[in-house]
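quick one: manganese (II) ion bound model?
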Amino acid sequence: MGARPLIGCATYHKAADQNPPIVINGLMPTYIQAVYEAGGLPLMIPLGLNSLDLDDILPRLDGLLLPGGGDIDPTAYAGNAHHPTLRDIDEGRDWAEITLTRMAVEKGMPILAICRGLQVFNVALGGTLWEDIQSEMPGAIVHDYFHKRDRTFLAHDVAIEPTSLLAQTLRARTISVNSMHHQGIRRLAPGLIAAGCAPDGLIEAVEVPRHPYAVGVQWHPENLLDVTPRMRSLFAGLVAASSRNGHAA
Ligand code: MN
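yep, here:
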């Protein structure tokens, strides 16, 4: 049997509960477990590397995972950098993830982008975001259950574009999802297609056409593996495409 494909996972800074306070560079274990249970070998990519080193790491990986997190600095998409609802901005993280996304798309490397990851995906390829869906998007339903409900709370449906790779992967036309985001796609990037929409029309899933597996979802499938086992197929799809892509025999 072949080796597990190596899935590079982007990481972030988080303040740790310690006195005096310190910052940790890490990732929620749910992402790591989801990749591992799907047959991939997750490897965390630290922040703080320069573009030469990211360029050096990428060919050694078979696939990429972009996790959730705070808001992207709106200056990255000529948005309103003073919007009062902006939270947890980290320009270094934005830069690293945007760089990795562009490299992966260009090289045909499989990539699964989750929540903030989907937003990074859109911004990296030239799209824009709502800085705050609730106060800006006409007719928006509630999308921000962050810190308000459990991470497994199914907040709304997503209608899946029947011809998309996402439809093939999930084998579903509609899926109920959790929703822990206050930002979302305003203008879709050229080069991406909408693969799924919420009932208010917000694009909740994107993909790069004719790419082996470049999928972004606005929800958090890694929290729904037991509630909705079908969500495992998103990680299985990443791992399968990564096995075909890289060095894993
Ligand atoms: Mn949502």
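The chain has seven helices and 13 strands.
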